[in-house]
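INPUT
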Amino acid sequence: MKRLAAIAALAALAATAACGQVAAPAGPGGVYTTIDGAKQIDATAPINPFNPQGSTFVGYDAMSLAWPKNSLTDPNQFYPGIAQSWTTTPGQGEVVVHLRPDARWSDGKPVTSQDVRTSIGLAYTQGGSAYTVNAGAAGAAADIQVVDAKTIKVVQGANRSNTFLRNVLSTVVVPDHVYGKLLPAGFWATLTAARGTGPAADRAKAEITGLTQKVITFAPPQDVSAGPFVLERINPGAALLRRNPYFYDAAKIVPDKVKVLNYTGNEQIWNYLVSGKLDSAPFTAVPAAVMGRIKSAPGNAVRRGYSPVAASMAFNQAHKPYDNVHVRRALAYLIDRAQVTKIASPEAGTPSLTTTGIHGDSAKAWLGERLATLNPYKVDPAKADLELKAAGMVKRGGTWRMPDGKPWKVELHVPASFSDWVAAAKSITSQLNDHGIDANVTTSADYVLYLDELAAGKFDVGFWLMALGPSSYNIFQRLYGSANGWSLLAGRLSHSPPGKDGNWMGGPEKIDGIDPGELTNRLNLATPQEQKNIVGTLATVTNQQLPVIQIYDYVNTQFINTSRYTGWPPDGSEALRLPAGVWMQLGMIKKR
Amino acid sequence: MTPLPNQRAPKTRAVARRLGGHVVRGLVMIWVVTTISFVIIRNIPGNPVLGQYEKLIEKGMSPDEAQRATAALYGFLPTGTLWEQYTGYLKALLHLDLGQSISTPGTEVVTLLASAAKWTVLPVLGGTLLSFLLGVTLGVYAGIKRSGKLGDLLSISGSLLHGVPQYVIGLLMLAIFTTLWPILPPGGPVDVEYVPGLNAGYLASLVQHATLPVLTYALASYGGWVLAMKSSVATVLGDDFILAAELRGLTRGVLFRYIARNAILPLFTILALSLGMLFGGAIFIERIFNYPGLGLLLVNSIGARDYALMGGTFLVTTVAIIVANIAADLLYTVIDPRVRTGGAA
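OUTPUT
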């Protein structure tokens, strides 16, 4: 017992001694503590931004050419990053990027066009929208030219996309003197060959994609950053970044260090927020009770803005009775979206105005007055009854049944790990039960399993993320893309029947002569005016046909703490969804 | 009396034979468990790349960015028929190659396991030993004083803590020591501001961060030890040698040692098995305190459908439990002569 007491006393002593100690004290700028919303920390991962789990942090030590603004409709709005400015030709055929003249790596070497060219070459090995070796893919770059040490030109291929600029400016830039050796001699000639057709092109493609793992697993011995910070140390619980003295706008950067805490679930972020440890935290789903505790912590505050995501109830139209639009409309008339949102996501959601496929804020900008002409599907049991009767459904003993008199049961599927979806589904089924529709909620153990079962067509009705703006193509691709049968392979659009190639929505290929998948694909290539027309048509079709019922639009809810720093982006800021490292680059964050 | 060399040889041979039998049985068990877990893992539904893509979308990443971030992951998925994957897996296993992770693409599973194992050892080993020492010591008192208030109090505390799930204790500890009385960090293994090494700040931070996981584990396990020890003591108290010791007028201290030494024997086996379970991690505790041990690694690998990592974590747990079983068996023959001599001691 004496020994035990001695051990306990020593432990307590050590713990007490640790309180308030700092190993290498930060300067007057202090230590900024945050969370990386894009990934969890894995201290064993290489310091390599091409590794999805890499020990680099976007906005802090991983830099893009530019940073996307949170625009409602225009995906090509950016804040400057390593690129000071850029120009495009009409139709985005060419993008010329001018780098910051004073941009340097953390080892003092200048950031040059060659760094960007190498970064683009490495991006080709990973695949992606602008940097793909698939001949004919929309928006693929066709040529990369170093104009001078600080200027680079990227030329788009013949099959043009209106998001080419966005994809080029999103290029993450790494130093050529560290990563250049990953690209074999003759890489650019191989890339040219890969853009062709035939066996030689296939061999060249295989050679490039064969580099994927080599690039992902590359582990530089230390971080070489062009951002405001450089990685000092990482452990499984956190990463510590110190200021990069060579950063081009070093005077704007206030914190001396940034501590990025790890998390494995939202509840850990809540704990950090409740204890007031975080200077800022990205969007996190928070129950109302926890939100109250977070807000009561000294200095904690919330910033809200546009989040281009919405939650919807999606139908498998290959399953009866959901192939009948009257049934889908009836359900829309029975669901009180405001009530569902109040229960499921009171802090981070607003009830959808109606179903358009577009987030409510964005819909106003896209559709203007046309939005008011769409059916709002306000709660109206009488209209629901009429729709159900039009679908041939019969009501017996107060319960709606299938046209042949067999029982009708609405099984609403959600992943168990999404607490807001589960709450929403329970609210919806409760409302349907009140109106004589037998409905219940079924959960899948986790999201991966849920998606697998959804894609396999096992569900009649499930929850689905949609309205992924600001790109109009991305918005409607969620409704009229691969989940509904339309696939784009090497620039060619095709439609698979329900139950094949991931088509679980099972909607018709044409509706009143309109091919929504084809229209969606055209959004990628259309001019702004054409896009507006197509978006109007697709929103109307979506509103009438209801492949989904849009339940609530997400609100980007960020947490900040004003005890140590000030200058946060205001509510609705176009910078709100960017990492705090970018806020610092923009000169927003100041010491209190 | 020291046995003669010719008397010692048969005993050595017998121990070697016993050990050899254990090792062979252990290897067969490892193969069986590995095969079963391989088949189960490969048949878990879910596409890890699609899952990762949709998770990024859910976090607000644009579809293009999410596609860029996940497209390359397809290269890390196992290929070939199930049989080809199985034979390849076994061949690699013979070279201690557990494959590469998909959730940390390109990182060897062995590296991830080694990294997580060191963080599991501290809270689980610390918690196990602390609860064992406390539980066993207080269990003796509970057994001896079982008719008194102290015995009642200890028994009630043991029953109460034994009945409360680990995660409830963890959440309570978290609420008390990080919110109501915020003297300990809410999560993580060590403050990253300290330079790793044998320096006071780093070591103190380690202790500070491990305190809540260790205490939670110790409190959650304490009840079991108290109750088991109390029961064992009650059995021993009825033995003739205790009566003889009392009649000989031995001091209370000596009597306490007599009772404790004999009552603790069955608990050693449980302790050895508990130490084997150590490598299974403490999933709830690691999750609550964001402690990056093997339990958390296993949970994350299942969520990400990281087949190689799941297989590696199961293997480590299996091997540890089998080794602990063998160690418990051999240890028991050392500490209890009745087992060694077939009950003729």
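end of record. Residues 39 and 147 of chain B are 54 Å apart (CA to CA).
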